Amino acid sequence: MKLFRTLVIGVIFALAVSVYVYQSRLDQEILSLNPDEVNRSFTLGPDQHVDRIAIHDAVKNTKIVLERAEEGWWVESPVSYPADSRTVEGLVMAARFAASQTRLRAEKDWTEYGLDKPGLELRVETRAKREGVLIFGDASPVGKALYARWTGERGYILVPPEIKSVFNLSVYGLREKAIFQTPPAEMVKVYVEMGPNAYEWKKEGGRWFWMEPIEKFGREIAEDRMQLIFKGLAGLNVMEFLDDNQKSDAELGFFIIHDKIKITHHSGEEEIFHFGNEVPLKNSYYGKMEKNGVVVMVDRMKIIQFLDLMKALELDSADRTVSSHAEA
User: Fold this and answer.
1) pTM of the full predicted structure?
2) Per-residue pLDDT tens digits for 263-277
3) Strand, helix or coil at 290?
4) Strand (E) positions, 152-302?
5) Burial letters for 142-176: b for 16+ Cβ neighbours within 10 Å, e otherwise?
6) Chain segment 229-247, per-residue pLDDT in tens
7) Where are the domains of the chain?
8) String of b and e for 60-76 (b: at least 16 CB within 10 Å)?
């Protein structure tokens, strides 16, 4: 179900991107043919950087706050966690699209447009500290569109229903779900410890070498095999965040000696992910990133597939011994 929602969101974002690009190209022409009927007070051009987004859903009684950080977007509330920056940029693009729409004169009271008590409110703040608040109302009786309005303006706009759907996201949908953030090109060591098996590879001179198991020590691993490892790591994603976890490390299966994966960045910084007990009813395993301590669930089948890959690589004869190899 979550995969289906992710696919739907991806389609919506793709639509928003294509619509926005098309709109940007014709913006001046459209305004000349269909000028604003009332003045607009809020604009969000390509040169205006959005640094903060707040989404308030009055129906669900939820509020999500996102802020741009030096390393990318961050979910600030209701949890503090890295955001999926590509997803958030999709929100920014949708907001720019809404800000570019023609302002139409309101001939009735806001109640008639469903804009007196909006169910969804979007608040964006630019780097220059300019703030705009977009609210969504009822469906228009003509065409497939919704009434919407930038508060403080006398007019309203019409937007496709998909634009509202873009902002109707859960916290899970906005959080970064990839376990490892280090790009493969910036990795210099990969260490995997699962059960009685340990595997390690080290990059030296642009090539990757086996460090463990000892039978493989010093052998160069083929580039295509190393790419399989990177692909396996990328497939380990968070299935569920357990922000309200009350269990101890012992109850979750995080002991002194347990399964883990450690990625070393060329700067020396490490990403260490610990695996805990199996959760049969969820077909998953507990997991925890050492850096932030957030407990999550990871798909059991993804872990089994990754372990199978490790075993297959151990038996693989594609790697070769070289006279100059990496040292531990």
Assistant:
1) 0.80
2) 999 999 999 999 999
3) coil
4) 155-159, 187-194, 197-204, 207-212, 219-220, 238-241, 260-265, 270-279, 284-289, 295-299
5) eeebbbbbbeebebbbebbebbbbbbbbebeebbb
6) 999 999 999 999 999 999 9
7) 2-173, 184-316
8) eeeebbbbbeeeebbbb
At residue 7, what is the residue type?
L
Alpha helices in 187-327 (DSSP H): 223-234, 249-252, 300-315
Percent of the chain with pLDDT over 90: 76
Instruction: Using CA atoms of 44, 46, 47, 52 in order, give the dihedral in degrees to the nearest 10.
Output: 60
Question: Minimal CA–CA distance to 103: which of 137, 164, 143, 147?
Answer: 147
Task: Return d(Cα 5, Cα 11) in angstroms, integer.
Answer: 10
pLDDT at 254 over 80: yes
Tens of pLDDT, residues 130-159: 999 999 999 998 888 999 999 999 999 999
Map tokens 């979007």 to a residue: 122
